[in-house]
Design brief:
Elements: E1 21-24, H1 32-41, H2 45-49, H3 53-71, E2 75-78, H4 89-105, H5 108-138, H6 142-153, E3 163-165, E4 168-170, H7 173-184, H8 212-220, H9 235-240, H10 244-258, E5 268-275, E6 286-291, H11 294-313, H12 330-346, E7 350-356, H13 367-376, H14 383-391, E8 394-400, E9 403-404, E10 408-410, H15 421-429, E11 440-444, E12 447-454, H16 459-479, E13 490-494, E14 504-505, E15 508-509, E16 511-512, E17 515-518, E18 521-524, H17 530-550, H18 554-569, H19 573-576, H20 581-599, H21 607-613, H22 619-635, H23 671-674, H24 677-687, H25 690-693, H26 698-709, H27 712-719, H28 728-735
Helix pairs in contact: 1-3, 3-10, 4-5, 5-6, 6-18, 8-10, 8-11, 13-14, 13-15, 17-18, 17-20, 18-20, 22-26
Length: about 725
């Protein structure tokens, strides 16, 4: 066990006593009404009259800690090492006694007694599991508690039993912790002095406005957790301590922003190693996730919202970036990318996609370059000084289980796992898109791919342009203190799987890929997504098996299916609408299997009847609804897209009914474009009643579509399914 003194002493979670115990608070029986009253009775006169940030920090933590010590004092808690098969001591002693008697007497009846004892233990364990499940099901945060219980019963653990480093195996917890700490802090300190970056806007953002309402909204967005950060305060405290906490934080945050100073008490973060892929014994296969103080995340949320609104409003972020910005996501990135490559294939062009992986991108951000870029975007003091203070003099402590490493000073990088860090990285990497004039880049944070397309006779010219832009990209990375992980970079050709190109960056050849996993979707050169379907199906079935084996109440199974399994089967529904018929049936078959296992085969119910009994919708119907909502968002500019999506159809001179807000249908020559979401759902969109298409808000549209899909006749018209067919569920699913 490694003991270390944190950079601040007042109220951090305390050092661990030994590897088998920890110091924590229990909030299980906390009277939050009493907490609110105690906070109100504390002495706050000096807090509201002082203008010293240090005094505000000290008074806030002192008073809140005194209240918590009264209602939920710290206790030393032993860490349970009992596994699922743990046998209580009384039963264990009885079994040992029976075993000893049997070996001495060879009495067969003792075997029956042993069997009865084991059955009794199984019954006790089953009853304990039932009680545990029922408690979680009846709690106010049943989704959170049931998913935590699922992880526990799946035995998902972050324990790292050993590491292999320099051909030596280490299994001591303290040594493992220090190895991770050394790796996470092992990067070159910045030495590059940036040149002056020209301003890109005449506008400016000097400060962040804090209001009581904004702080309340930020607190509501927190998950109700009892886990603490380095300062010892859990999110449940802020969520349950009443209306006085936002007022106290308003004073706190305002002084911090006005003085351009980020409290030093918040600059210490715990680092949790998060496994990525590959060998679990290799420290290189883990990424650092920062656990920062909850109070800091509340302030960062308000800063991030206003800063991102400014960047988008002033068009300071490239439209190719889809990460960590309002109305942008992995799904919008996939949509823009797939729309681009299907359009190129419709034009009978070859498509070459280059994938790049930046090594430890968040850790290698140069602070001096970042501050220059923020200044060029119009960020001025005191906000700029506050951001400098936010990133400077940070300390990280790696935490593995209950073991803490020695503190490490960090002089570069943005905080990965914080609220504000990803947005700052977005500003840092924004200019990378200027390296590409022939290729079309797509970004999600540091995940970069570039699409090149050309006719076959233009291939040599395209390769020349790729080489020039790869050289420009290498120069940009060198100037930005970033490096590529060439082993994880590569290219894929769509339209000619036999094409062989020699593409290099920094003197190293990029590998040709047969398929690639990109933001959770498996792309291959034929764009069938069969590999993605099989992966989602296997993963969902494993989860269903775990749920049905470990949980007994029908309500619990359905809730966990909705939360944990169904999102796997519905990820990027616009891509799923273009799957082959067999793959669509495979996905629907997963839910068929779940409903059968939950209700039992003896129920004798058809699939749609089982869905009604369990209050589930068939996947094809949900996919139809989700895609219509996605289409509405695109056409009403509620989602980001790098290019205009659709144009209203020209109204003819004929007085046609239901003609308003129709969409022009693209005439496609290739199957991949014909089967693409935009073409397919333009047709379905035009079949919607005019009052549904003309909905003026998203909630109105969603409620209108929901009502429409409950009408079987309207549903059959949308999917063009014969009403006399006995296989409506199957045939409808193939059309959407």
């Amino acid at each position: 066990m490694v003991l270390c003194s944190l950079p601040f002493s007042p109220l951090n979670i305390g050092s661990k006593q030994d590897s088998g115990s920890t110091i924590c608070r229990s909030y299980k029986y906390t009277d939050w009404g009493l907490v609110q009253e105690l906070i109100r009775l504390c002495q706050w006169d000096d807090y509201f009259t002082t203008e010293s940030l240090e005094a505000v920090v000290t008074l806030f933590y002192r008073n809140v800690t005194l209240c918590l010590d009264t209602v939920a004092p710290k206790k030393i808690v032993k860490l349970s090492r009992h596994r699922a098969e743990y046998i209580p001591r009384a039963h264990r002693n009885k079994l040992r006694k029976l075993k000893k008697q049997y070996y001495s007497t060879k009495d067969i009846s003792l075997l029956l007694s042993i069997h009865e004892s084991l059955e009794s233990i199984k019954r006790l364990r089953s009853q304990k599991d039932l009680d545990e499940e029922l408690t979680a099901l009846e709690s106010t945060s049943k989704v959170y508690n049931l998913t935590a219980l699922l992880k526990k019963r799946m035995q998902l653990t972050r324990e790292i039993p050993y590491l292999l480093h320099d051909k030596v195996i280490y299994n001591e917890p303290a040594t493992i912790c220090e190895l991770f700490s050394d790796w996470f802090a092992n990067f070159s300190l910045e030495t590059h002095m940036p040149g002056e970056i020209a301003p890109v806007t005449s506008s400016s953002l000097e400060s962040i406005v804090f209001t009581n309402q904004l702080i309340v909204q930020a607190i509501k967005s927190l998950k109700p957790s009892t886990s603490t950060g380095p300062d010892g305060l859990a999110s449940i405290i802020f969520k349950n301590s009443g209306c006085d906490i936002p007022l106290l934080l308003l004073k706190f945050f305002s002084i911090s922003m006005d003085t351009g100073t980020y409290p030093s008490e918040w600059k210490t973060s715990f680092i949790i190693p998060h496994y990525k892929s590959g060998d679990k014994a290799n420290v290189r296969n883990y990424r650092p996730i920062n656990i920062t103080p909850v109070i800091s995340r509340i302030m960062e949320k308000v800063v991030k919202d206003q800063l991102s609104d400014y960047l988008i409003r002033e068009d300071l972020v490239t439209r190719s970036q889809h990460g960590f910005l309002k109305n942008r996501s992995c799904v919008t990135c996939h949509f823009d990318f797939f729309n681009c490559i299907t359009s190129s294939r419709e034009a009978r062009k070859l498509v070459v996609v280059l994938y790049f992986d930046i090594s430890r991108a968040f850790d290698m951000v140069s602070h001096s370059i970042l501050f220059e870029k923020l200044y060029s975007c119009g960020i001025r003091n005191p906000l700029l000084n506050w951001l400098k203070s936010f990133l400077s003099n940070r300390v990280q402590i790696t935490k593995v289980g209950s073991v803490l490493s020695h503190p490490r000073q960090i002089s570069s990088g943005v905080v990965q796992g914080s609220v504000l860090g990803p947005l700052l990285f977005t500003v840092y990497i924004n200019s990378i898109c200027k390296c590409f004039t022939s290729g079309k880049p797509f970004l999600y944070a540091d995940d970069l791919k570039v699409v090149y397309s050309c006719y076959t006779h233009e291939l040599s010219d395209m390769v020349t342009k790729i080489h020039l832009e790869l050289s420009s990209l290498a120069t940009w990375c060198a100037e930005s203190s970033l490096n590529f992980n060439i082993d994880k970079c590569g290219w894929i050709c769509i339209g000619n799987s036999k094409l062989d190109l020699t593409l290099e960056i920094n003197g190293r050849k990029l590998a040709k890929l047969n398929s690639v996993v990109d933001l959770g979707i498996r792309y291959s050169s034929n764009l069938t997504f069969a590999e993605q379907t099989d992966y989602a199906r296997r993963k969902a079935r494993r989860l269903i098996g775990c749920i049905t084996r470990n949980f007994f109440y029908c309500e619990t199974r359905v809730l966990l299916y909705k939360v944990c399994v169904r999102p796997i089967l519905e990820y990027c529904p616009f891509i799923l609408s273009g799957l082959r018929q067999n793959d669509k049936l495979k996905l629907e078959g997963v839910q068929r299997q779940f409903t059968s296992r939950t209700l039992g085969l003896e129920s004798g119910l058809q699939y749609h009847e089982r869905c009604e009994r369990l209050r589930l919708e068939p996947l094809w119907k949900r996919r139809l609804k989700l895609n219509l909502i996605f289409y509405y968002k695109l056409t009403n500019l509620l989602l980001h897209s790098s290019e205009p999506i659709t144009k209203p159809n020209t109204v003819t001179s004929y007085n046609l009914r239901n003609h308003h807000n129709l969409i022009a249908i693209e005439h496609c020559q290739t199957y991949v474009r014909y089967n693409f979401f935009l073409n397919k759902f333009s047709v379905i969109w035009n079949r919607l009643p005019a009052n549904v298409r003309d909905a003026n808000t998203l909630p109105v549209f969603i409620s209108s579509v929901t009502r429409l899909l409950k009408d079987d006749n309207a549903l059959l018209r949308l999917t063009l399914t014969p009403s006399f067919s006995p296989y409506i569920d199957i045939l409808s699913s193939l059309n959407v």
